[in-house]
Amino acid sequence: MAETPLRIAMIGLGTVGSGVARILQQHRELLQQRAGRPLELRRVVVRDLKKTRDVDLPGSLVTDSLTGVLDDPEVDVVLELMGGTMTARDVVLQALENGKDVVTANKALLCQAGDELFGRAVKLGRTIAFEAAVAGGIPIIAAVSQSMSANRIQSIQAILNGTSNYILSQMLLAGQSYSDALGQAQELGYAEADPTLDIDGTDAAQKLTLLVRLAFGISVPVSDFHVSGIDRIEPIDISSAGELGYTIKLIAQARLGEAGLALSVRPTLVRKDRPLAQTHGSLNAVALDGDSVGPLWMSGRGAGSLPTASAVVADLVDMAVGRAQLTFPRLGLGTPGEPLPIASRDEFVSRFYLRLTVEDRPHVMADVTDILGRRGISLASVIQHEAPEVSGDAASPHVPLIIMTHRTTAGAISAAERELDDLKTVRGNRVCLAVAD
Ligand SMILES: NC(=O)c1ccc[n+]([C@@H]2O[C@H](COP(=O)([O-])OP(=O)(O)OC[C@H]3O[C@@H](n4cnc5c(N)ncnc54)[C@H](OP(=O)(O)O)[C@@H]3O)[C@@H](O)[C@H]2O)c1
User: Could you say which of 107, 207, 249, 272 is catalytic?
Assistant: First the structure.
């Protein structure tokens, strides 16, 4: 057994970094056996040397000198676990230039600067491993890039943001309002103090671009596809979806179709009996469909100290045995033939759930169905619960009107929504969600 250690420098000793340090300590022998050589944590870089840490490391290991560590010839692999994109990009580039391989959990960085970083790494004969950047502890990068290599992947449907999933689950299972569920997610540490990127769908979209890079060999910026989050979902949507046999989930999707690859992140009604609908709390899940293997499915912890560190340390073992170095240059090479076209947002085909708030009076329903009908949108079902009777001259009450459409395009539904907004009898928050059957 070769005994040359894999010499590691870790930038960041926060949530993920301390999990990595803990696993390297607790599973030292097991990891050495699996890697064929010791995994040696040589340096740890932090911003604030005075901060109390919840992992015990020899003081001599920890430094605040980033350059000293990146220039250290006795480091083989740099773990970028600092987060952010500006300094992190410089750190990764410098590490590659200095002849080091890189492991990162930073989806925002790879989404923004992946083309540059991957390109530079390949040119320099170096490797970037990033299992932890998508769905935390779920080994989805290995599954898509290695284990499914005999397949043309047909579709990916995934819950990739634990914060959104926690909020939607609390609204469904505990009857909480959106804002109460968000507050609880923050108290429990699932949501950041500023949860914008989680709840507006950006975080899930960044992760989707990484999966798409591996599964379909193309690099697509988040700005090129539809991304919407869960902030407009109200308890009535959760209960109406339930009445119709569905659960609302924030679904990141990539699907091959006639118009090309359709990508989106949007709140979606998923049939209650599907595993994705039953993935609750802060869990993540990914459903894949390969042309050879058929449908398959993985679920687990998408964030948190040890689950994310589990993926980071697996990358280190891959580096130590040389597996990562062999597969990296072939990642995202694309598929033979023309590059896949990206379907336009308007071409996205789905059934839709539409919730309007309408005045409860004659002709309203006819006006709404007329607008939808002129756009070729046919109705699958309608729910309008009775409003309380009003007497005399009192204004008509406003009631929710829930419409499920048959299959149509996002373009047709958006055009209809714009017309509906002009109706005087339609008021307030309007919600339009995709339906995954
Ligand atoms: N948290 C999760 O569950 C999770 C899951 C999947 C992926 N990720 C990704 O993993 C990465 C790390 O996340 P995290 O939650 O562990 O972050 P975190 O808790 O905020 O930790 C960041 C660490 O980086 C250090 N750091 C930041 N800027 C630095 C600089 N300029 N020089 C030296 N050290 C610096 C900080 O030092 P101080 O401690 O001294 O401030 C801290 O130890 C992010 O890219 C994140 O997106 C996180």
Answer: 207
